[in-house]
Amino acid sequence: MAPDFDKPFTLVIDASDVAVGSVLVQDDKEGTDHPLSFYSKKLNKHQQRYSTVEKEALALILAIQHFEVYVTTGQFPVEVFTDRQSSHLPVQNEEQESAPNKVEFIPPRVQLGCETHPW
How far apart are CA 104 and CA 57, in angstroms? Predict the structure, then answer.
């Protein structure tokens, strides 16, 4: 299936102790999810020490960076599914002060709609 920029995209992200990964997904005309592209990255020794929440946030950031052309050019917010509660992902807004060594950056032009996806 080819990407359709007139329809919303979905990111499915996950993290383990040694790697992070994501899938860019889009629905077809019947509403069935189809994977468009995959991304994964092995964590370095420093990233492997991150907490579970920080690894999930890193997975989100890397997915947004990798799929930037898809998630920043659409007219719809990007829906993100993860097995973590979305309220626990450390996404920072402009009013918050930055904490050192925390994964907190989402490009401001990306609109995200986060939901918890049960595995």
Answer: 7
Q: Which two tokens stand for residue 87?
A: 């309220």
Cα dihedral 115/50/90/37 (nearest 10): -40
* Whether 10 contacts 78, CB under 8 Å: yes
* b/e per residue 6-41 (b: at least 16 CB within 10 A): eebbbbbbbbeeeebbbbbbbeeeeeeeeebeebeb
Q: Which helix (H) or strand (E) holds 62?
A: helix 52-66
3-state secondary structure at position 13:
strand
pLDDT tens-place string over residues 37-62: 999 999 999 999 999 888 988 999 99
55, 20 contact by CB (below 8 A): yes
Cα(94)–Cα(81) distance, integer angstroms: 23
- Single pTM value for the model: 0.74
DSSP state of 29: T
